[in-house]
Design goal:
About 35% of the residues lie in helices and about 20% in strands. The strands form five sheets. The protein has a seven-stranded mixed β-sheet, sandwiched between helices. The chain has a seven-stranded mixed β-sheet with strand order 15-16-17-14-13-19-20, with helices on both faces. Strand 9, helix 6 and strand 10 form a beta-alpha-beta unit. The N and C termini lie far apart (about 90 Å).
Length: about 500
């Protein structure tokens, strides 16, 4: 595969600065290298932020918050609208950079930028609708209501697999709520973050609003510094369950808030009355999209006995024909894994599954040549295998035979994560059971659509070790604000609630 170059429209230099705050770029820490996972070659270098620069970033964000929160929400929405327009201008070059840096195919890279644009549009509308409600008071001549206020500067920690969209989910919603943002992106995808920061800076500088969005690139120590800082009332973190647990503990120790979007061990249930062609397409995208490196990736297929053999055969043929290669090639369906460590994790998981009774139906090998390419692995397995209970962040799919819906739901729910789930069936009863309190225990539950591919507008997130946070839609904006209950007495008496009397002679 020939080396690719960074789109010149993004104006990235060979060595970039990993700190940006108040429009000032610098970086005095160790040098980070961004690697193209498709070639294993260097894309660029970034001078990381130091603890001192991170401290400056936090203080700048705090000072900017004092001004930003005073702007009416619709005015904040107008700024976000202009950022969305800038993102539209740079959709193709930014999408290409995302694909280059994290390895997802080009349509997914451009789709990720489209997510940013969509959330900007959503945030603009939200800026004119956020607010509380009025409740009836039991006391005469009283009005009781709730209102919402900006929370403060917040920290946003993102992962390599969605190097820009998840930042937008958080930052653009937080911005219309009146918060300022400090972004700590994955050190594996720093260039994408720098390109987005530059796009935002052009809008903010034109409006005289530096310090609203800030950037600190570096290793995990920066994330730890943000998590410990009492000036940041909220830390939003996306990543592994292990990382999320560490962040949550540090934030909780200072009585701060955490918004966590962590791992998923997602399953698709396929019943005997399902449309198998529809289910096949959903399973393929869910398991192969982003080379299985999505938190919503399909890890398990629970197929009923009557369709198990046919579905296995269809999936095996499809897996054998899926094109693995250059993520910028329009024919490619599966790009590379992010790095050498990810390849090692993939190979070890496949070996462990086979050693413990799993039957390898397709793939499971590393591809020769440069880059971090593997053959997606399809395995027949038992539900209780330890490796099946774990999330392996790679294209590995386990096929599990089930007798009935009740067994399938039990198997699906019997993992530590609770992010996304799906069922394929033409039975209304089965679909409704799956969606009921007796069904899926995940934050996302779909019928005749796969586990992967979040749509802006619905709240995104999950239960159990997935962290419990919600982003991107519905009322997830509330995570970035503080609630206040207010009661106004416009009468001349002072009645107490619950009939309490406290009369003074």
């Amino acid at each position: 595969m020939e080396p690719h170059s960074i789109p010149p429209e993004l104006d990235l230099k060979p060595v970039e600065s990993g700190f940006c705050s108040n429009g000032e770029w610098r970086g005095s820490g160790p040098e980070l290298v961004s690697i193209d996972p498709g070639t294993g070659k260097e894309l660029g270098r970034v001078l990381s932020a130091t603890p001192e620069e991170t401290e400056k970033c936090i203080e700048n964000a705090r000072e900017a918050f004092e001004h930003w929160r005073k702007l009416p929400a619709p005015q904040r929405g107008e700024i976000v609208r202009r950022i969305g327009e800038e993102l539209r201008r740079y959709k193709k070059p930014l999408g290409k950079l995302v694909s280059l840096e994290c390895g997802k195919i080009l349509s997914e890279g451009e789709g990720e930028v489209q997510e940013m644009i969509d959330i900007a549009d959503f945030a603009v509308g939200l800026s004119r609708t956020i607010g509380g409600r009025t409740m009836p008071s039991e006391r005469p001549d009283h009005r009781m209501f709730e209102q919402w206020h900006p929370l403060g500067p917040i920290g946003v920690i993102t992962a390599f697999n969605f190097p820009v969209a998840v930042w937008a989910w958080n930052a653009l919603i937080a911005a219309i709520c009146g918060d300022t943002v400090i972004w700590k992106p994955s050190e594996k995808t720093p260039l994408s973050a720098i390109a987005v920061q530059r796009i935002c800076n052009r809008v903010l500088e034109a409006e005289g609003l530096p310090g609203i969005f800030n950037l600190c690139i570096g290793e995990s120590e920066i994330g730890e510094q943000l998590a410990r800082d009492e000036r940041l009332p909220l830390i939003s973190a996306t990543g592994s369950c292990r990382m999320g647990r560490e962040v949550a503990e540090k934030v909780a120790a200072r009585m701060g808030r955490s918004l966590l979007e962590l791992g998923g061990n997602n399953a698709i249930i396929v019943l005997e009355d399902a449309d198998l062609d529809l289910a096949l397409r959903a399973v393929l995208f869910g398991s192969l999209g982003t080379a299985g490196q999505r938190c919503t990736s399909t890890r398990r297929v629970l197929a009923q006995k009557g369709v198990f053999k046919e579905l296995s055969q269809k999936l095996t043929r499809a897996y054998c024909s899926a094109v693995v290669g250059d993520p910028l090639d329009p024919q490619t369906l599966v790009g590379p894994l992010i790095d050498e460590e990810a390849v090692g994790t993939f190979l070890q998981a496949v070996a462990t599954a086979c050693e413990n009774g799993g039957e390898l139906l397709s793939g499971g090998n590393r591809l020769e040549g440069p880059g971090f390419f593997v053959e997606p692995a399809l395995l027949k397995a038992e539900a209780d295998l330890e490796i099946v209970q774990e999330e392996t962040f790679a294209p590995i799919l386990y096929l599990i035979e089930i007798e009935n819906l009740e067994e399938a739901v039990s198997i699906q729910n019997n993992v530590r994560q609770g992010l996304s789930s799906a069922i394929f069936t033409d039975s209304v009863r089965s679909a409704e059971h799956f969606l009921s309190a007796l069904g899926s225990d995940c934050g996302i539950a779909n019928v005749n659509i796969g586990t992967s591919g979040a749509e802006i507008g619905g709240a995104f997130g999950g239960e159990k070790e997935t962290g419990g946070g919600r982003e991107a839609g519905s009322d997830s904006w509330k995570a970035y604000m503080r609630r206040q209950t207010c009661t106004i007495n416009y009468g001349t008496e002072l009645p107490l609630a619950q009939g309490v009397r406290f009369d003074l002679e």
